[in-house]
Specification:
- The protein is an all-alpha fold and 305 residues long.
- It has 2 domains: 1-92; 102-305, no CATH class.
- Helix content is 77%, strand content 3%.
- It has a two-stranded antiparallel sheet.
- Helix 1 (3-25) crosses helix 3 and helix 5 (106-131) runs antiparallel to helix 10.
- The longest helix has 33 residues, at 231-263.
Length: 305
Amino acid sequence: MDGRAVAITALAGVASGLVFLSMIQGGGLLPIAGYFVQLPILLCGLGLGPLSAALASAGALGTTLLASGLVAAAVLVIVQLAPAVLLSRRALLWRAEGQRIEWYPLGRLATDTALYVGAATLAALAWLETAGSGVETLARLLAAHLAAGLGGPAAAPALEGWLARWLVWLPGIVALSWLAMIWTNAALAQALLVRSGRARRPSPALAELVLPRWVVPVTLGALVASRLLGGAAGFAATVVLLLGGALLFLAGLAVLHALVAARRLGRAPLVVLYLSLLLFSWPLVLVVAALGLAEELVGLRRRLA
């Protein structure tokens, strides 16, 4: 790395650490900025390489350690830095296929991040059970945190009641939100780097996404288990179900992208699709995930070709 790259890496690490500190301490930046803690790390990783991502992560970690202590630093590593470095390294793997370079496939990248999030979430669930806290304690803490920003302690009981109705889904929703954050930051970092001409790999085409074959049986098995099991096993099953569903959602988007490309319909249908996903959210998300399941079972894209 030359001097300019070192300076960019150092600034990115400090910026990531400061954004994270702003999020956990509730000051300075808007709360939404906390969603983009990974962005400087991924910009370094996808633009300058995995070493830059690792060094920027070290800078963010050092900033957090000095300002907030060991617990905050551990959360930063697990939630933000480790998946960003992992994704940066995997994304830049390649091999030569004759005269063509074959990059690490998008489906594997998506699956790798889902596996990381799933493993970390299940480990956290196991720790909660071992500590005797359980997901109920997590729900109470989350309700108190939300109440602090929405209306003070008086709002906590109502929020606890609402969360109690969704308790079995709570760990899975947290994991799903975490995974969406990683994917969003990675896509944004790659788009910014491509636009500036600094991307180290071309952007993968979503229409070409291929998931590992085990995703469907694992997801369907988790669906059955989530209906039959209770307690910690039920929580674990819902985590796997929602993460598998997220991967099938990507597969469904891949089918729609392939359809638009095959019919040469331009970008307008995709703009309408993503606006509809924002407006109608869960019902349309479930439809797209079902389309992804059909793709994995019967190969819809082959029929479109």
